[in-house]
Amino acid sequence: MAPPPTSVLHASLTLPPPTITHASGHYLHPSPGPPILDASGGAAVSCIGHSHPRIHTAISAQLDSCEYAFAPHFSTPAYERLASFLCSSTNGAMKKVFVTGSGAEAVEAAVKMARQYFVEKGEGGTRTRFIARQRSYHGNTLGALDVSGHAARRAIYEPLLSGKTSHVSPCYPYREKRVAETDEAYVDRLAQELDDEFHRVGADTVCAVILETMAGLTLGAVAPLQGYLAKMKEVCERHGALFVLDEVFAGMGRTGYLHAWQAEGVTPDLMTVAKGLGGGYVPIGALMVSPKVVEVLGRGSGAFVHFQTYHGHPVACAAAYEVQQVIKDEGLVENCRVMGEYLGERLRARLGGHPNVGDIRGRGLAWALELVKDKTTKEPFPVAQKVAPTIHAAGLQKFEIAVLPGGGVVDGVNGDLIVLAPAYNVTREDVDLIVQRTAKAIEHVLGGAPTAKI
Ligand SMILES: Cc1ncc(COP(=O)(O)O)c(C=O)c1O
């Protein structure tokens, strides 16, 4: 059947995706077709499920009071309330909030804030560089892509990127911890690599090190090893650079902590959040700024040299604030922890013995299955085989489930992932269904019999 005509510039020019006419709870309703179980919340976004009535009410009330005010000239109670909630959720680690329209915009704001911090300190002449990690993802706008380390996403835009960011190894034990190396020795090696990179580029040339607290969609739900973030921050501080944590994916409850760094006992100088902030009800992200950075700006120019027409949008702020109240009132951060453990357990029981499931990893309600051609050598499938995209398509077309396919985990190009990031309010029954349907989609594409019944 020929696809319907469309004026939308979809991801594929020839194959438009299914049209969702409505969504509720954990289900997306396409037309035509049966309901689809949303096991990834889109790109790890829909954290309280779809069509929550409290968010409807909050958005309507905000539209009734003030739909828009230009943030550089006016504040609104909605912006003030969200910012105050976010700061108090960090126990004083963060002092100011700049609300954006997306994760990439929050990262752009973080990059600009880091640069401005050093200009205000009188180090603007030298501090122009950033250090990030290979195979990281911080967004697709040019500034955010500049710090991102995902080769395939950067490739054709490389000539437009600044070349001011260098990338060190991520913390990725499945492939990069050496045989017989202890976790501690591996973490020390990564910290040494960062230190070496500071020396290579000139220790006083770096504005900031930027890392995902828990590597999300491109490396596939890799939680940091114990002590890793603390050691990276130590190196960063030794060279006077800022330590920036990107929690666009991992933040606002997904890992079983409201802020993923709270599990590590490491506070950033700047941090970003987005996906779980608005839960998909509105496009929103935020940069949060520590007292140390605010103080330098306060003693200097007293103003952040950055704004956008829609930053601090009151409807987005009101919706996000209500999403956060739902998370609090319904105990959803705790549910992420409990259901996350259950999801990991069920995935291991159902798919741990599959010959092509090389690794099953995650924390909270962020999980990834790394698919390999050979489990012993960890050889990936060639990218041309499109293993993860085919499993995603099979999930949608045959098993009524939406999972998130990923690629490039090995070298930025090859290496397939299936990421699961369901809403924080899933039940054990929802988790059972997610595991069952995901396993069926994988077995449909790769073969392999179930190792246990659920
Ligand atoms: C860690 C991280 N940072 C930034 C982004 C970019 O966010 P957005 O797609 O909202 O621009 C993403 C998106 O997946 C992400 O996972």
TrEMBL record:
<dbReference type="InterPro" id="IPR015421">
    <property type="entry name" value="PyrdxlP-dep_Trfase_major"/>
</dbReference>
<dbReference type="GO" id="GO:0008483">
    <property type="term" value="F:transaminase activity"/>
</dbReference>
<protein>
    <submittedName>
        <fullName>Class III aminotransferas-like protein</fullName>
    </submittedName>
</protein>
<dbReference type="GO" id="GO:0005829">
    <property type="term" value="C:cytosol"/>
</dbReference>
<keyword id="KW-0663">Pyridoxal phosphate</keyword>
<dbReference type="InterPro" id="IPR015422">
    <property type="entry name" value="PyrdxlP-dep_Trfase_small"/>
</dbReference>
<comment type="similarity">
    <text>Belongs to the class-III pyridoxal-phosphate-dependent aminotransferase family.</text>
</comment>
<dbReference type="GO" id="GO:0030170">
    <property type="term" value="F:pyridoxal phosphate binding"/>
</dbReference>
<dbReference type="Pfam" id="PF00202">
    <property type="entry name" value="Aminotran_3"/>
</dbReference>
<dbReference type="InterPro" id="IPR005814">
    <property type="entry name" value="Aminotrans_3"/>
</dbReference>
<dbReference type="InterPro" id="IPR015424">
    <property type="entry name" value="PyrdxlP-dep_Trfase"/>
</dbReference>
<dbReference type="InterPro" id="IPR049704">
    <property type="entry name" value="Aminotrans_3_PPA_site"/>
</dbReference>
